[in-house]
């Protein structure tokens, strides 16, 4: 039996697709390895969200081809470029689209029996979560992601996700709850709910957004400690949903709401909801005391003026967002933004991002220093050789936010929820004791 490895690129949503492919292969008797040097076949699950991500995926593909591996290219790259990719990389033995991951076993079977390249890329992707497959998790720790939906019905001017993933498709509540229970039995302490937009959850199968209902059901799982929600849409953060998040004890008081910009002109150009973002942030903070808010912004969007940028800069300075990411606009074909003029120079985009990140570094440092002397709930990630605990506070999502380093003689295990007293702070991380 040939060994199969998988290299994952991109977001947590991609990671789950990778784990589902590995789960299907394992269930069909294939031997999985995390060491691609030992594998005969390497599946590379690619990302095409922005140009830099695409370049990283392509580099990985050629590295494996040059190493003599049989390469199957999966995910966003073949979905975006269709048959063109097959012509550009004829060395690849298979191509799998974003909504065709359930066909991975058939592809592997055929490419191992014949020399014919297999191509399974649906021209009109329609995501369907393969509920019959148990994910073979690449990483297993205190936290685990759960994909509650995929695809998107919004048409943001800069984004190709609807073209890559199709319309919004939700999973049933009972299937999500079952997966959460299974993960909890394996020792997962925190589940992180993800989708292109979690606040639209259920609209396609229940007739209305039903994230509130899902959270209530997940909150009943005794073995779980924390439930975290990512990727909420600003105009769908209703008072009712926020009050539910505040009320449910297992749902961490953390709101991830990618605002993308605050200038009315740019939001209109982005085809994003034109709302009062200051009012939204104040509402979240009023309904959920001690909430941590994360957001992301895009700088250098076509037509962005110095006045638009200054409005964004002043917003960040005034609102003091807990966690913030800034991206330079990446021009993508077949999007509204590709045709907008004037395009902003690369040097200006870089400069604007640097200004915002420098500002946010000071904001984050100020917020963290105010925590010194206070006690805060944390989830244990790992314990290093010195016995120090590496953890995250409830204010920090895995992989994208900060860490807290805790010194203690109290025995703990990964996944434990502990209360730490903050003794020190730097720009993004904390130091504490138990």
Q: How would you describe the overall organization of this protein?
A:
By secondary structure, the protein is an alpha/beta fold. It has 3 domains: 3-120, Methylthiotransferase, N-terminal domain (Rossmann fold, 3-Layer(aba) Sandwich); 143-369, tm_1862 like domain (pyruvate-formate lyase- activating enzyme), CATH 3.80.30.20; 375-433, Nucleic acid-binding proteins (OB fold (Dihydrolipoamide Acetyltransferase, E2P)), CATH 2.40.50.140. The chain is built from 15 helices and 19 strands. It has helices spanning 12-27, 51-66, 76-81, 83-88, 104-113, 161-165, 173-185, 203-206, 211-218, 239-247, 264-270, 277-287, 306-319, 336-339, 346-369; strands at 3-8, 31-32, 41-46, 70-75, 94-96, 118-120, 143-147, 149-150, 169-170, 190-194, 226-229, 254-256, 292-299, 323-328, 375-383, 389-393, 404-407, 417-425, 430-433. The chain has a 6-stranded parallel beta sheet, with helices on both faces. A 5-stranded mixed β-barrel has the order 15-16-17-19-18. It has a 3-stranded parallel beta sheet with strand order 7-10-11, sandwiched between helices. α7 (173-185) runs parallel beside α9, α9 (211-218) packs parallel to α10 and α13 runs parallel beside α15. The radius of gyration is 22 Å and the shape is globular. The termini are far apart.
General form: globular
What is the SS-derived class?
A: alpha/beta
Assign the CATH superfamily of the largest domain: tm_1862 like domain
Helix count, DSSP H or I runs of 4 or more residues: 15
Query: Strand content of the residues, in percent?
Result: 15-25%
- The parts where pLDDT drops under 50 for at least 5 residues are none
Fraction of residues in H or I helices: 25-40%
Radius of gyration: 22 Å
Q: Regarding CATH, which class of the largest domain?
A: Alpha Beta
| CATH topology assignment of the largest domain | pyruvate-formate lyase- activating enzyme
Please identify, by name, the CATH architecture of the largest domain: Alpha-Beta Horseshoe
Major sheet attributes: 6 strands, parallel
What is the averaged pLDDT score? Answer: 93
Number of strands: 19
Return the domain count: 3
First-residue to last-residue Cα separation: 50 Å
Across the major sheet, the strand order is 2-1-3-4-5-6
């Amino acid at each position: 039996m040939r060994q199969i490895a998988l290299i994952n690129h991109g977001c947590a949503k991609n990671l789950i697709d990778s784990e589902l492919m590995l789960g299907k292969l394992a269930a069909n008797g294939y031997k999985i390895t995390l060491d691609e040097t030992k594998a005969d076949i390497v599946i590379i699950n690619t990302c095409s969200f922005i140009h830099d991500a695409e370049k990283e995926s392509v580099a990985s593909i050629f590295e494996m081809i040059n190493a003599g591996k049989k390469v199957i290219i999966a995910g966003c790259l073949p979905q975006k470029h269709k048959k063109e990719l097959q012509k550009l990389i004829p060395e690849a033995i298979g191509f799998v689209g974003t909504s065709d991951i359930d066909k991975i076993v058939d592809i592997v079977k055929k490419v191992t029996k014949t020399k014919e390249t297999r191509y399974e890329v649906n021209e009109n992707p329609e995501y369907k979560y393969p509920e019959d497959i148990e994910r073979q998790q690449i990483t297993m720790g205190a936290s685990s992601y759960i994909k509650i939906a995929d695809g998107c019905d919004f048409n943001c001017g800069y984004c190709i996700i609807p073209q890559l993933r199709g319309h919004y498709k939700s999973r049933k509540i009972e299937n999500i709850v079952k997966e959460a229970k299974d993960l909890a039995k394996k020792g997962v302490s925190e589940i992180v709910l993800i989708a292109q937009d979690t606040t639209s959850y259920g609209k396609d199968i229940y007739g209305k957004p039903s994230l509130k209902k899902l959270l209530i059901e997940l909150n009943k799982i005794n073995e779980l400690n924390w439930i975290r929600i990512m990727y909420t849409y600003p105009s769908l953060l209703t008072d009712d949903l926020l009050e539910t998040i505040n009320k449910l004890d297992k749902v961490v008081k953390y709101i991830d709401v990618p605002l993308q910009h605050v200038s009315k002109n740019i939001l209109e150009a982005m085809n994003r909801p034109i709302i009062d973002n200051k009012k939204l942030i104040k509402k979240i903070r009023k309904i959920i005391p001690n909430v941590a808010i994360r957001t992301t912004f895009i700088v250098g969007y076509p037509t962005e003026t110095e006045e638009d940028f200054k409005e964004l800069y002043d917003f960040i300075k005034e609102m003091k967002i807990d966690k913030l990411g800034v991206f330079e606009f990446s021009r993508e074909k077949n999007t509204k933004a590709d045709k907008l003029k004037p395009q902003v120079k690369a040097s200006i985009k870089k400069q604007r991002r640097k200004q915002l990140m420098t500002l946010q570094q000071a904001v984050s440092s100020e917020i963290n220093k105010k925590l010194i002397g206070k006690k805060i709930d944390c989830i244990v990630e790992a314990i290093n050789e010195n016995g120090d605990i590496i953890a995250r506070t409830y204010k920090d999502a895995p992989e994208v936010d900060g860490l807290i380093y805790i010194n203690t003689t109290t025995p703990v295990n990964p996944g434990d929820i502990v209360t730490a007293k903050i003794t020190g702070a730097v720009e993004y991380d904390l130091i504490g004791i138990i």
